[in-house]
Amino acid sequence: MTLRVAVIGATGRIGSEAVKAVRAAEGMELVAALGRDSELGELTEAGAQVAVELTHPDSVMRNLEFCTANGIHSVVGTTGWNPERLELLQGWLKAAPSTPTGPVGCLIAPNFSIGAVLTMQFAQQAAKYFESVEVVELHHDRKADAPSGTATRTAQLIAAARDAAGRPRQQDPTTHELPGARGADVDGVPVHAVRLRGLLAHQEVLFGDTGETLTIRHDSLHHSCFMPGILLGVRKVVQTPGLTFGLEHFLDL
């Protein structure tokens, strides 16, 4: 079966790469490429089965509400998710009409890079063995949010692994002379965000214990590194009803 795929945010840096990747992918047909001024009705007119959503936190909810209401599966790379937004999206998915391939599915991926997903998994495995951990993420200076969705998700996975292992939450004895000097607190894990022209997307997870440290680092050097994950998401989401958070659920890990 050939999947009819649309890209929302097709003129952005990742969106334009996604357009090329879908066009070149076996078993997919690019039926719509929506930019800033496009109407969402183009999705239904084109008969899109899956929409790849790569826009901005300000517009993602409107786009997903339209997709779910019209029985279009979605693969989402836009960040800015919180429990309230996820709950609203889950309600839309439950109310969505069924499709020829089954109930509507939605994948939200904090990162589509396979290396970034593996970094999160490795960090989760290491979390219970070290006394302290911090996350540093580095991105280009035009990124819309901070900390990144990847860093937030990494910290959440680390915290969950530490909790499951019975490790206490980290204590920070330092005096904070300036607000934010110790970064953001994500479930007890400090997360630091760097925004610098010339970077793309990078992350370090630093673990420390008596006499040793462990650093896990991933670097995205070109937007093309996200395309295998996006294409995997498109293929899997039509077989996976409801909300899936994290590309790791579509990988054999």
Please give the structural blueprint:
Elements: E1 3-8, H1 13-24, E2 28-34, H2 41-45, E3 50-53, H3 60-69, E4 73-76, H4 83-95, E5 105-108, H5 114-126, E6 132-139, H6 149-164, E7 184-186, E8 189-195, E9 201-209, E10 212-220, H7 227-237, E11 242-245
Parallel strand pairs: 1-2, 1-3, 3-4, 4-5, 5-11, 6-8
Antiparallel strand pairs: 6-9, 7-8, 9-10
Helix pairs in contact: 1-7, 3-4, 5-6
Structure in words:
The chain is of the alpha/beta class and 253 residues long. The chain is 32% helix and 26% strand. The strands form 2 sheets. A 6-stranded parallel β-sheet has the order 2-1-3-4-5-11, with helices on both faces. A 5-stranded mixed β-sheet has the order 7-8-6-9-10. The longest helix has 16 residues, at 149-164. The chain is elongated. It starts with a strand and ends in an 8-residue tail after the last strand. InterPro entries: DapB_C, DapB_N, DapB_N_CS, DHDPR_bac, NAD(P)-bd_dom_sf. This is 4-hydroxy-tetrahydrodipicolinate reductase.
Give me the CATH fold name of the largest domain. Answer: Rossmann fold
The separation of the N and C termini measures: 27 Å
**Number of E-state strands:** 11
Order of helices and strands: EHEHEHEHEHEHEEEEHE
Alpha plus pi helix count: 7
> Looking across the biggest beta sheet, what order are the strands in?
2-1-3-4-5-11
Tell me, what is the CATH class of the largest domain?
Alpha Beta
Shape descriptor reads: elongated
Radius of gyration of CA atoms, rounded to a whole number: 19 Å
* Helical content band: 25-40%
Give the tally of structural domains: 2
Q: How can the largest sheet be summarized?
A: 6 strands, parallel
Low-confidence stretches: none
CATH superfamily of the largest domain: NAD(P)-binding Rossmann-like Domain
- Write down the overall mean pLDDT: 94
Estimate the strand proportion: 25-35%
Structural class: alpha/beta
